[in-house]
Amino acid sequence: MGQPVTQPAPLTTTHIRVDHYSAVHLAAQTARSLAQDRQLPGPLPEHFAVIASELGSNLAKHATDGALFVQPMLLGDGVEVLAADRGPGMPELERCLTDGYSTTATLGAGLGSVSRIASDFTIRTQEGTGTLACARLWAPGSPPPSAAGTGTVCLPADGEEVSGDACALRDTPAGRTAIVIDGLGHGPSAAEAAQSALRSFHRAPEAPLPDLLHGIHRALRRTRGAAVGLLRLHPHRAEYCGVGNVRVLVVTGQSVHHRHTGQPGIVGLRMPPPQVRSLPLEPGTTAVLHSDGIDHRWTHSPPPHLLHLPPPLLATALAHGHRLTRDDATALVLTH
Predict the structure, then answer these.
(1) Tell me: the pLDDT tens digits for 250-298?
(2) Can you give the residue ranges of the PPM-type phosphatase domain (predicted)?
């Protein structure tokens, strides 16, 4: 008898609106609990709570329409907190990253403290537009998670406790392979379909994409079904195979192009023969997979600064600025 397949825990994102200073305490509690659940050793749960608290405090003090997104990292055992707001931005970012710097009368270790504690910290700011940040934490001495060049957010619809979307990323001999799943509708039944699809994907993530989709189709026959998008990276190109309204597109520093949606149908109910599309993907370009909980109109006239964001911040920007809150929303971003 073979060994059981080890399947990563499903990604779930907790969204915290920072519309009052009380949200800072909630952010710290949420971060601490997540780090404990992920079994980060020693003082790391408290360190992660401090990171979330400092990012939340900055939003509460200085920003409009601030939000935090707390979640496990997509690869490895680390955790991350994403921060977004709609302005005013920081005109002196380098000074703000100095430990102990504050623009208020308080001590305010602030962003300098986050930069010092986090295993990896990425931040971009645009005056008049706002600030985006990603702070990641993993155990010292462990190999850095192979999540560089990736970013994701997976959120339930407003009013729902579970997301009917799901996503995953696996590195295999066949290439880095990503999946975004959108269970039909939302709520528990959609979540059941999405998690069934995710389990099927993890059984053989190295399989040819049509075979993966056929396996997921069989796994979903007793569920309400789902839209599924699969993306596999190769040198200088990517393969996309999907059914339903999961979009894939390529982002360069100049434009968004190669926009595709899946073939018409529902995986688990009525699925056409899967087709594989090849997308040019030169080194340094970015591929985005997202469910229809992200408004597709973001690609029509994206501002230049959006096109230059690193993957975790682009995923954050899509979730914060282009999410349709009545539906589950997932964005998965990969740099080649």
Answers:
(1) 999 899 999 999 999 999 999 999 999 999 988 889 999 999 999 999 9
(2) 147-336
**Type of residue numbered 253:** G
Q: Which residue has the tokens 């003090």?
A: 61
How is domain 150-335 classified at the architecture level of CATH? 4-Layer Sandwich (3.60)
pLDDT, one tens digit per residue, over 137-156 is 999 987 778 778 999 999 99
Domain locations in the chain as residue ranges: 14-137, 150-335
Global confidence as pTM: 0.93
Asked whether the beta carbons of 188 and 163 are under 8 A apart, the reply is: no
Give the pairing of strands 226-234 and 237-243. Answer: antiparallel
Name the CATH superfamily housing domain 14-137.
Answer: Histidine kinase-like ATPase, C-terminal domain (3.30.565.10)
